[in-house]
Amino acid sequence: MKRKRNLADLPDEAIAGRRVLVRVDFNVPVEGGRVSDDTRIRATLPTLRYLKQREAMIILVSHLGRPKGHRDASMSLEPVARALATLLGSDVAFVDDVAGEAAAEAVAVRQPGSVLLLQNVRFEPGEEKNDSSLGERLADFADVYVNDAFGTAHRAHASTAALPAAMRANGRPAVAGFLIEKELEFLGGALDDPRRPFIAVLGGAKISGKIDVIEALLPRVDRLLVGGAMANTFFRALGLEIGESLVEQDRVEMAGQLLRRAESGLLLPVDCVVAQRAEPGQEQRTVAREAVPPGFRILDIGPASTAAFSDLIESAGTVLWNGPVGLFEIPDFAAGTRAIAEACARATRAGTVTVAGGGDTAAALEMAGHADDMTHVSTGGGASLEFLEGRELPGIAALDDA
Ligand code: ADP
Ligand code: MG
Question: Which of 187, 230, 247, 327 gets mutated to test ligand 1 (max ligand atoms within 8 A of its CB)?
């Protein structure tokens, strides 16, 4: 993939005292008027601090939730402005308008080093339609455009596509922020130039959503380890009886084709943890994959599989992990996923490059207490999957080439 121009490529004169509009991903949970998880806000701090130190006039654009082009007070970004002010240790102005007169007035009175957050850009009907006039109105607010919203980079919306296009048309820079730069470095680095052996661990509920990822990864990795309910469909392709386990019947044939193509490159669990219902406090059994009792369902990988997967992870040069290997939300079925997180943490300490993508995978790492023990945890769920599929992300394609 072509390298994109980033913030550090711009001379300080292009930033100092200039209006720098940053598309951020502040799509955070808000409960009772307060931000309850500020991970995504913190992820943008390197970019925002860099701009502040260089006395830029910072204008922030984000979406929150899915207001579908209508104003909805429950999805206001105002609580986010307060959370950001605390994290930055400085004032953050907020205007309850996206691209109209009130926003234009708030932009006009900016001072160097100040921060202004505009209202939820998805209150505008033009945002999700990638409306060029909304893009142009926002471009009028900016001397420089920075995209640091990796989580929405797979969407061609006005703030991620029409806006940078309008900047380019005006001869103004449209560059990547440090968060996007980091995502491209680690996700892209894993794909293009991995330290070997390169091991991918895939899990989650369905193969249907991840077939393109499997296809894209197979030729690149040395080993593809498959766990989670996704493995069940492969088990069916091997003719195994899997009781009441989740399975995608219409994907069994495709799973068989993938198995034949991958030969020994694709590794399935050899044992599993089963129970009669996907609920806490059930009688659990650990069984070989050939011995799932009728009426039971597979809810986690078993200890022999965990050990085999962990060994491969720990002897890898690069590990890419997407998808929990069991129903980790229920502690009874979280042991496999926890063990994978621990193996990744040990691998990182030993010098392996470990990269995780996917919303539930990030949550599983938090659960295991190892979110900080990976080389990189991607902030983009859908965006990281599309990237791993080898697709071009519109929000990144729209930026200047380096
Ligand atoms: P990510 O968001 O990281 O891409 P997915 O959305 O693909 O991950 O999958 C996560 C979900 O898969 C979790 O909710 C998890 O409980 C579920 N899952 C994994 N293994 C099983 C299983 N054996 N049975 C049922 N659900 C499972
Ligand atoms: Mg998910």
Answer: 327
**Taking 70 as the threshold, does the pLDDT of residue 1 lie above it?**
no
Q: Read off the pTM.
A: 0.90
Strands 19-23 and 57-61: parallel
Do residues 97 and 76 lie in contact, with contact meaning Cβ atoms separated by under 8 Å?
Answer: no
From the list 90, 188, 185, 105, the residue with the least C-alpha distance to 140 is: 105
Please state, in angstroms and rounded to a whole number, the distance separating the CA atoms of residues 292 and 229.
Answer: 14
Give 123-181 pLDDT, tens digit per residue.
Answer: 999 999 999 999 999 999 999 999 999 999 999 999 999 999 999 999 999 999 999 99
Please give the Cα distance from 305 to 372 (Å, whole number).
25
Mean pLDDT value across residues 48-72: 98
DSSP state of 293: P
The reply to whether ligand 1 has any atom less than 6 angstroms from the CB of 177 is no
- Is the CB of 247 inside a 6 Å radius of any atom of ligand 1? no
